[in-house]
């Protein structure tokens, strides 16, 4: 199992949290996603390490951005 | 046709706008709902005048509040 943490900007409410979580959960191998609205911190657990670009693309698809 | 305007507080993003609009559209006789995120102004068009309490209940159901 692998755990990676990202900071996502632009989330303002629980709907935003759900959107980000739903998109990331669709990535292959992802088993859990935790999103903290207050900090923007997103913790992704997966069967194998994820490609950061894939996570960033999922966040972008939801309408938000990963802070670099 | 009747048009009534309300100010809804707590909406922070387009998901919130959609939630409020979806709940109000479920009220009998409602034909159109316009929600302005920046001002919180919600304009409801309906076949006959709506009971304010019904609109307030719909907004509450969505997780927001009508300002008095």
From TrEMBL, chains A, B:
Keyword entries, A-Z: Metal-binding
Pfam families xrefs: HMA
Stretches of the chain forming a coiled coil according to its record: none
SUPFAM superfamilies assigned: HMA, heavy metal-associated domain (SSF55008)
Domain HMA as annotated: residue spans: 2-67
GO molecular function ontology, one term from the record: metal ion binding
InterPro entries: Heavy-metal-associated_CS (IPR017969), HMA_dom (IPR006121), HMA_dom_sf (IPR036163)
Keyword Metal-binding: yes
Source organism superkingdom: Bacteria
Gene3D superfamilies in alphabetical order: 3.30.70.100
The keyword Translocase belongs to this UniProt entry's keyword annotation: no
Protein name (record): HMA domain-containing protein
Species whose genome carries this gene: Spirilliplanes yamanashiensis
């Amino acid at each position: 199992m692998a755990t990676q943490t990202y900071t996502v900007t632009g989330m303002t409410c629980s709907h935003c949290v759900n959107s980000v979580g739903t998109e990331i959960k669709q990535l292959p191998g992802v088993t859990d996603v935790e999103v903290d609205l207050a900090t923007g911190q997103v913790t992704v657990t997966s069967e194998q390490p994820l490609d950061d670009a894939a996570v960033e693309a999922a966040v972008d698809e939801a309408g938000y951005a990963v802070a670099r």
